[in-house]
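To: structure subgroup
Subject: Chain for Friday's discussion

All,

I'm putting the inputs and outputs inline so they're searchable in the archive.
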Amino acid sequence: MTGTATLSSVVCYSGQVESASWEGRHVPDAERFKRFVREVVRPRVSDAASSFESDLRGLATTGMATEFVEHLLKAVPEPEGWEVGEALAECALQRDSGREVHWPWNTVRDRRTPRASLPGSDLVGFYRDGDSVLLLFGEVKTSSDAGTPPNVMNGGSGMAWQLEQSATRLDIQHALLKWLHARCSSPPYRDLYEKAVARYLRSEGKDLLLVGILIRDTAPSELDLKSRGHALSKKLGTPTRIELIAWYLPVPIADWPKLLQEVAS
């Protein structure tokens, strides 16, 4: 992942009950957050590792074609808050949570329509804990809702329900494993895949890590996560692990797309 910036968040609350844990992380420094967006998040949103743009420009052999390519590249809509939130969650989990997390693929590459949300989990990767590797399936919610917990945590489209689905529905797990298999054909991801999936199969689909990420621009409150942690611990016992993390950020979510454009200019 590009960039060296970190969020340097401060843990403002934490708790645990049986298989579930939760923690809130406050980022007090707005300038540090903006740098993190500029150096780490923005390349993830735009998939800086892709050679698509340079290849497209190289295939334009006339002045008119070159001009058209530039219009085509600028036709991508400005990312919405939830899109930035998903990229931010991946980067923060990898850079700021104290966990060793590996993402084998940038899911932005799989979107076939603008602002599409892929089926299945928002986060798909691996968590290394010493010599052990776990499958990681996760959900991301981004909200400026003043309520606590915010509405994105509630109901059939809420975080707890979606995490439970990922943990209990074999059709979802089959699709995610197949998706990972196609993207883990070479080192170092092949080794991570084999270790994590072997562990998953030995446990008959129970030994995995579920991560729920809440991205907020409001004051920290343990009420955002605590009740969801208790509810999930009653439904999903060990060896399944549930970790809920909220990041409370110093720049309003509504300003994030503009911030990305300012960085790009």
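Points worth raising on Friday:
The longest strand covers residues 132-143.
The chain has one domain: 10-264.

D.
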